[in-house]
What does this fold into?
Amino acid sequence: MNPTEQVGRHVPATTRTDAVASIPDWAWLEAGLAIAARSEGLTYVALPAPVLAAAAIVDELRDQPIVSWTSADLTLVGVGIARELRGTGRARWAEVIAAAHAIATNTPEVGDEPRDTMPTRDLELEPHSGPSRAVIAGELAPTVALGFARPRFLGGAAFAPGAADRAPWTGFGDAWFALPRWTYVHDGARAFLVLAVDAHDAASAARWRDELAIFRAALAGGVIDRKQPPLVELGPAPADEWHRQVTDITDAIARGECSKVVAARTCSVQLGGPVRAAGLLAALDDRHAECVRVMIKPPGAGALIAASPERLVRRDGDLVLCDALAGSVANTGDLATATATLRASAKDRREHDLVVHAIRAALEDAGATVEAAAEPEIRALRHVLHLHTPFRATLRTPRHVLELAARLHPTPAVGGTPQDVATDWIRSHEPVARGWYASPVGWFDLEGNGELAVALRSGVIAGNRAQLWAGAGIVAGSDPERELAETEIKLRAMLGALGVTT
It folds into this structure.
């Protein structure tokens, strides 16, 4: 089996070649750089690598701009920036789509109109032609032959335009995605380290050899220290401040101004030394493997780290998947009793139904046929149980995953309803700007496929400090004390991973 075949189709772990499980070879890098030096556009130099956790890469490259994504079927770690995309204001999604289209097609940007797809068409071209190409373990191939290791943009967006314009979110912006310089990717059975370079970049061969040496050290494996420096100070937002927020919202609901607002509560953590991002990710892997674990560290910024239980949207061709996750109760260990309590709660079912209705309406407005069960499932997590309605939709016409995200976000699960009223309330009343909390984070590829999670159970770390967020959906009948307890439970995900017990 040649290297191209290894990437392009599924290879069971028991039949992997030694090459796929090896440390990346210097000769493969040199072969890829030689091809990139005489080619137009980007060349993706794919080096077979061993399978390991994202935290191992983060630990070794922690001072670089870095984005990681770990789900049940895919791990991505992007290090450095080959191309950067930013969007601002209400046009942020359209601007990112347009800029990505220009990179994918190796053409000048022609405006910020949304593109439904960004085709590379490499299957119809010779490997040397087209806007990009791959070199897989030293062999030239079309970019599509990369399969699961294909190029992806990684990043996300703020909860709303302007929400990340001050500390601790400085550097994040309204929307930021990067095509990483290096991407480590595995699907559980196979792994590759992919370098993105153009002809100009390829001339810096010594730089890429030096950086590969760092990756080789990271890929050699090693134990990630989960232990964090000792706690110096824990500062949860005051309970009376929270009570006022909840009461203000329920009063607004009683006046008929809105039906729901999701209020967020913060908790600051100061440690006796720098927060160890790799250790935090590894602890989240251990404690919350059922969630998507994400880290986003743009240039000159802190790092957003999350263990999200909620998918905003996944697009794979004409197939779209979404989650409605709203309505919750503490996981006391007695699942039967907790489940019965949650199912019997009219307040939680009303909150959940608002989310279901909004997601269905957004997908249907996008021209999709939508399937969802009439009754929600129960999603059991380490600290909490949620009402959960999965959506499966089929697009009649292509839609970029970011276009779908723009239609969906913020759902009533994280914003409220009506959407504009809830978003305005959040912006004008919450004492700390949300930044990228509860925002869409994830990846998309050159064809407009991708997956975005909602940045819940999250915080931003910088130096020896972490600022954490947790939210609760406030509807008619919400009790401030019960909602306070809900935020305390949700904060445990990040606090526990930081080694803080409450």
User: Anything to note?
Assistant: The first helix runs from residue 3 to 8. The CA atoms of residues 261 and 416 lie 4 Å apart. Residues 1-6, 8-20, 110-127 have pLDDT under 50 and may be disordered.
